[in-house]
Specification:
Number of strands: 35
Distance between the termini: 108 Å
């Protein structure tokens, strides 16, 4: 009798264990592939190309470090769509192109990228709209969260550390760090060359250089795009900014833009309209609870520790070691 009872108990335990064990995979596999709970796995550049002309509601997740050697969606009729979770892996970029636009994603239409590391280099020797992550965003929305980039970016007009240009109304960038150097001609920024949006806890530690005539910013070259509003919260520029007209530690040329709790510390060099936070303000620009400890070098008019011209400044401080303007006329 004891043997029978013991066998019954053992059998019952085995059944319960198998039932519990089998329930987990069944539940996990019930989500459709490409959904938030079961993203498409990305293990190569070929896998990543699934995002080209895909669905904006599709989800993708990086499963290992990969290398990308060409622009995805550079052609005029192609767009990258969907949500990419980098899963804290690294995409190394080895991209050199004379086309337009240039970046990991050339053109996008409704894209979210999060938890991603970027390394390597992106260069555009003969055209505009260059960024490590996105060359051009002309439709849909862009959301970037928890991005760390050490990519060296070299382009012409509209060049940014992450985005070249974004002529859309919905741009949300938060918790990003750009460590690589960024170089272009005009409208150059450590995060974005041209565009408006919301920037929260963004940091640029690399150097930003513009070799053209105008509009260079530590984070964004120019925000005065079609009257759209921009806001910067807890953003910082720790590298050097070198430009000409309209050069700023955070933004070169700003319009309809608010700055809260932002700072710059690296040397900022330009000609006229040069400032530690903003070079030139247009329309309504508010600078509140910000400071700059940057050395400011200008050789023209309207050079300031915090702003070059046309900004409203509140509760902010210029702690600059020096502010030089060789020509105050």
């Amino acid at each position: 009798m004891k043997r029978i009872l013991s066998s019954v108990v053992a059998f019952a335990l085995l059944v319960s264990i198998l039932a519990v064990g089998s329930s987990v995979p069944a539940s996990a596999s019930s989500a459709p592939l490409g959904s938030a709970d079961n993203p498409y796995p990305i293990r190569s550049q070929s896998d990543l190309s699934q995002m080209v002309n895909g669905s904006s509601s599709a989800y993708y997740r990086l499963e290992q470090n990969i290398t990308v050697t060409s622009v995805l969606a550079q052609a005029a009729n192609n767009r990258v769509r969907g949500t990419l979770d980098g899963n804290h892996y690294t995409i190394t970029l080895q991209i050199s192109s004379s086309g337009n636009p240039v970046g990991l994603f050339g053109r996008v239409d409704g894209v979210t990228v999060k938890n991603l590391k970027l390394a390597g280099s992106v260069s555009n020797s003969n055209n505009q709209q260059t960024g490590a992550l996105i060359g051009s965003a002309t439709s849909g929305s862009v959301t970037l969260d928890n991005i760390d980039s050490s990519v060296t970016v070299s382009g012409q007009n509209d060049t940014g550390g992450l985005i070249g240009q974004a002529s859309i109304s919905s741009v949300d960038i938060r918790n990003v760090t750009v460590r690589g150097n960024v170089k272009g001609t005009t409208q150059v920024g450590g995060i974005m060359g041209v565009g408006s949006g919301y920037f929260t806890r963004c940091s640029v530690t690399g150097d930003v250089t513009g070799t053209g005539t105008t509009t260079i910013g530590g984070l964004v070259g120019i925000t005065s795009v079609s009257g759209r509003y921009s806001r910067f919260d807890e953003c910082e520029m720790l590298g050097q900014v070198k430009g000409n007209i309209n050069t700023g530690g955070i933004v070169g040329h700003a319009a309809n833009t608010d700055f809260y709790n932002c700072r710059s510390t690296g040397t900022i060099t330009g000609s006229r309209e040069v400032g530690g936070i903003v070079g030139l303000g247009a329309s309504t620009v508010n600078v509140d609870r910000c400071y700059s400890s940057s050395t400011i070098n200008g050789d023209g008019a309207r050079v300031g520790g915090l702003t070059g011209s046309n900004c409203h400044v509140y509760n902010s401080f210029g702690l600059n070691p020096s502010v030089k303007s060789l020509n105050t006329a």
